[in-house]
Amino acid sequence: MTEPVAQLIEGYLTPYRCRTLENYTGYLRRWTTWCGTRIDPARPTRTDIEAWIGELREEGLGDNTIRSYLSAVAGLTRWLVTEGHLDTDPMTHVRRPATPRAGARSWLSRPERAAFIAAVQDDPDLNVRAAHASTAQMPAYDHLRSVAGGDIAIRLYDAIAA
């Protein structure tokens, strides 16, 4: 490696603009500070990166923040490989914090759906006309996410009530 680390990082950050540039600059500054005299920040190993992840966790940083930091480091190491400064990408086998599944638990379960429909049909205090009841039941039968279905039911209810 002939170029100083700062020049390599500058080369990697060249295409980024605005907020991404600010964020990645901060993330990589934190990476290079951690590397200090331990390792060359432009030549890390998988175990170096995982040791850094461990220290970030010990500092109390959350998984989303750690994933953000790793995104910048992963981009840098991928760029270093592409530009011929590294032979292999050490991020390839790094165990990253798990990403929560989108929409996890946002659907109504069968018992929740049954309870929802029963409440709409059977509760005399709701004063729900038949049209409103079917509008409220539609999200349950169509397997819409509960939040999206609620929005649809509210808009339809407003239209019917007007």
From TrEMBL:
Protein's name in the database: Core-binding (CB) domain-containing protein
Source organism (scientific name): Promicromonospora umidemergens
UniProt keyword Iron, yes or no: no
Pfam family, one: Phage_int_SAM_1
Span of domain Core-binding (CB): 3-81
Signal peptide positions on this chain: none
Entry keywords, A to Z: DNA-binding
Keyword Transport: no
UniProt cross-references to InterPro entries, sorted A to Z: CB, DNA_brk_join_enz, Integrase_recombinase_N, Integrase_SAM-like_N
